UniProtKB/TrEMBL annotation:
Residues 90-421 form the Serine dehydratase-like alpha subunit domain. InterPro entries: Ser_deHydtase-like_asu, UPF0597. It comes from the Bacteria. This is UPF0597 protein J0J70_03065. GO terms for biological process: L-cysteine catabolic process to pyruvate.
Length: 426
């Protein structure tokens, strides 16, 4: 049954909203973006920067390398780089152009302890407030729920912009997601006019393949992607895992190449897209077939994240691997039921992998999640799936996705707190 015109337009809007380019890990880049905006409002360079962040922002920005900084890490480095060299008009590519002199300036300001970092304790997992002070002048930028969603701007205490968002509803800054379901996602992927999505999909392919190839060629982190090809062989299954892992190797360890994100995450964007691209190219699928598989993978990922939230203690590679598994089943001629079973089999296996921040080991979690998704695919193609007698699996795919989303959103809240506490105790 064809999707309605309203649903069709909603899916189109969701893809445009979620598949966006970013340079570097999105949490430190969101800090850099807010900092660049605050400096632009202030008009002068600040004498002091105060950064208030939710726990999940601290967790994800603490250990990852900030691109174009000479391998600096952390919240303070992100904020200072945004203030020194950021251009907020570039969105999540805000620190695309940083010269050598600016890198030295950032390092010097870090030594001078220009920044103070504070924890925001509220119900929003993605929340950033950047305050800048220069003499009697001040500015403030507040982001909530998504990485570039500005909810408040101030200069010298005067409110320039204010948008109200429910702090407990992480989807309140996004287009309506209630229309998402696996059956309609598949129908949309099969029937959508690709004309208006082609440029975005080509950008996804080019950006994500380029950074994966960089990760396979050069030294980043522990080079999980290279290890897979060296030790597991170079068949298509190994390549699917290796390319996604290599992209993460590079991105988590300071590579300055951009990626196309999904659900606010470059790692999820690469996990959802690169296995699909690798398989399609290896098997000689047409461009249209690859595009449609990419649409399916992205929307399946987004659908799950709608229940979990952008940031949580639940590793997003699991959701994105489900998207890749679904796309693999689709590319191999699987039915709707087999696509649904691929997702169920993957969730029943690895749901609940803990997110302990953005860092080099994300590449290994991506590879492990994709291995489970490939297993889930093969089980589904053999006509078998875990049923409602198995743990949290429900009687329908939509109930199953919602149940595992509840695990990530509600069940792992205390896990999130303990993960951050353990990290901060080091």
């Amino acid at each position: 049954m064809a999707v309605t015109k309203k649903t069709y337009q909603a899916y189109f809007t969701i893809l445009k909203e979620e598949l966006v380019p970013a340079l570097g890990c999105t949490e430190p880049i969101a800090i850099a973006y807010a900092s660049a905006k605050a400096r632009e409002i202030l008009g002068d360079f600040p004498e002091q920067i105060i950064i208030e962040c939710s726990g999940n922002i601290i967790k994800n920005a603490r250990s990852v390398v900030v691109p174009n900084t000479g391998n600096l890490t952390g919240i303070e480095a992100s904020a200072i780089t945004g203030a020194v060299a950021g251009d907020s008009s570039k969105g999540l590519e805000v620190i695309e152009n940083v010269n050598e002199e600016q890198i030295k300036q950032v390092a010097s300001l870090l030594e001078a302890k220009l920044c103070k970092v504070k924890l925001i304790e509220n119900d929003a997992n993605l929340h950033i407030i950047v305050k800048m002070i220069n003499g009697d002048q001040s500015s403030l930028v507040e982001l909530i729920h998504t990485h570039t969603n500005i909810s408040r701007l101030e200069k010298n205490g005067e409110v320039l912009l204010e948008k109200s968002f429910n702090k407990e509803d992480f989807n309140s800054a996004l287009a309506d997601r209630s229309v998402l379901n696996i059956a309609d996602i598949l129908e949309f992927a099969q029937t959508v006019d690709l004309t208006d999505l082609k440029d975005m999909l080509e950008q996804q392919i080019n950006y994500n393949l380029t950074i994966a190839e960089e990760g396979l060629k050069n030294q980043y982190g522990v080079n999980v992607g290279q290890m897979i090809l060296d030790c597991y062989g170079d068949d298509v299954k190994s390549k699917m895992k290796a390319y996604a892992a290599a992209g993460s190797d590079a991105r988590m360890c300071g590579c300055s190449l951009p990626v196309m994100t999904t659900s606010g995450s470059g790692n999820q964007g690469m996990t959802a897209s690169l296995p699909t691209i690798v398989y399609a190219k290896d098997k000689g699928l047409t461009e249209d077939e690859m595009y449609r598989a990419l649409i399916l993978a992205s929307l399946v990922t987004i659908h799950q994240k709608t229940f979990i939230g952008r940031l949580s203690a639940y590793c997003g590679a699991v959701s994105a691997a489900c998207g890749s598994g679904a796309a693999l089943t689709y590319m191999k001629g699987g039915t709707l039921e087999q696509i649904e079973n691929t997702i169920t089999n993957t969730l029943a296996n690895i749901a609940g992998i803990v997110c302990d921040g953005a860092k080099a080991s994300c590449a290994a979690k991506i590879a492990s999640s994709l291995d489970a998704a490939i297993m889930g695919h093969y089980l589904a193609m053999r006509g078998v799936a875990f049923d409602e007698k198995c743990g949290m699996v429900q009687s329908t795919i939509e109930q199953t996705i919602e149940a595992y989303g509840r695990l990530g959103r509600e069940g792992m809240k205390q896990t999130d707190i303990e993960v951050l506490n353990i990290m901060l105790e080091k």
